[in-house]
Amino acid sequence: MGPEADDDTLMSLREARRILRAKIIHTLTIWPKLSPSMLQVGIGTSISPNIWKPILEQMIATGELNREERHAKSHIGRDQVYTILSLGDINHN
User: pTM here?
Assistant: First the structure.
């Protein structure tokens, strides 16, 4: 493989990353508050979390997305922790 193949691979990875970011934002535009598992359904269950979770973490780190934990008791008194994802202020125009 020559350098062109490496450039093509890099461009393909950048494009895939751009598409995943767009899918995450689009999904959270339609459903403003989701758990990570529901986001998985929204962006496509065929996409492995190993691929999209690093992008999600970067989006949280830059403020594009918010991650909030809520603590509550279930109807039977069990402590529950819920993770909720939403668009960050940077994405609200």
Answer: 0.80
Of 6, 45, 9, 39, residue with least CA distance to 25:
39
Q: Please state, in angstroms and as integers, the Cα–Cα distance from residue 12 to each residue in 7, 24, 48, 54, 91, following that order.
A: 9, 18, 17, 17, 25
Segment 26-48, tens digit of pLDDT: 999 999 999 999 999 999 999 99
Measured distance CA(73)–CA(64) in Å, rounded = 30
Quick: pLDDT tens for 67-78. Answer: 999 999 989 999
Asked if CATH classification 1.10.10.10 holds for the domain at 3-91, the reply, yes or no, is yes
Bridge partner residues of 79 (DSSP): 73
E strand residue ranges, the chain: 65-73, 79-87
For the chain, how far is it from start to end, CA to CA, in angstroms?
A: 44
2: DSSP letter = -
